[in-house]
Amino acid sequence: MPTLLACFWEFFKTGLFAVGGGLATIPFLQEMAEKHPDWFTKEELTNFIAISESTPGPIGINIATYAGYKIYGPLGSIVCTFSLVLPSFLIILLVAKALDKFKTNSIVQGAFGGIRPATTSLILAAVLSTFAEVLIDLGAINSVKTFFTSIDPMAVGLFAAILIAAAFLKKLHPIVFIATGAVAGIVFQM
Amino acid sequence: MNMLLDLFLTYAKIGAMTFGGGYAMLPILKREIVERKKWVTEADIIDCYAIGQCTPGVIAVNAATLIGYQKKGVLGSLCATLGVITPPMLIIMSIATVLQAFSENVYVQHALAGMNVAICAVIALTVFNLMKKTWKDIPSVVIGLSVLGLTLAFGVPTVIVVVCAATVGIVMSTLKNRKKGGDN
User: Fold this and answer.
1) Are B92 and A57 within 8 A, CB to CB?
2) ipTM of the complex
């Protein structure tokens, strides 16, 4: 029981202070590993992150669920995940209430006019860095010359094929293309 | 169908189909709640992401909480939030003991490598559409490109970028209104 309470407190704090999505929780979890070595080690944490990407769901949720399981079984999963989500849930409720009230306010509208194109850029920046990770073998680059040879031709080919297919077959659900990617990955041993 | 149940089930479906972080969810979110359910517009989703990025917590979950609230108040946000976290939690809890072996399996790794490429492609299309919708005049393109540069080249934190963009937005709309006032 004291473990579960400690879990609640640590994950609640993480949920309260980690701004910027699931990956922003990692530094907090690293601190947790130092403070509670009996919960999980830093090496295990690196492992959690990799493993969390292999099942569906937002990364932050997956890491908390898996870490919680390692600490205290299924009950640990539930406590850690819920306490991670609780602070942002409450904060978002406040923001949503305020937005409802000030939605028509000209200053709020002006602010969102500036924020919308900026958000697109933030998403674009995140997507571009993912592209680099997925399509290029970053470790192999050490000069302009090796830049081109470090591009993974199979990944780029699959990327182009799915991009064209998705652009034309707009009616198909995105999950169809993701599943196609999975099959192609197995067939071509990517 | 009951709206609350619909929120829970739709978000459960989204949670079960998302691989990766909040951005990987965008194409699926757009398909499910903009195109199929017509609950919100694409601009609403962008606003939710903007707020989700500057508030603590998991972006995808924050966006679910916000959209749930807009549809059905506090209970709506509870249903959407529980919906998006339940499938991933159940999946991990039920295979936790074999999860390590699962993720190290060579076929799983090949499948994930292929999926990541596919996710990149579907997100690329979604982002392209977002650019068409949000970079629609010279000021918004200038804001967009400067933010892109600040983030990619200088690694300026998201919160600061969003606050600056909001300030620019407020100044521009105030100037515009004043100009309109002057014309009259």
Assistant:
1) yes
2) 0.87
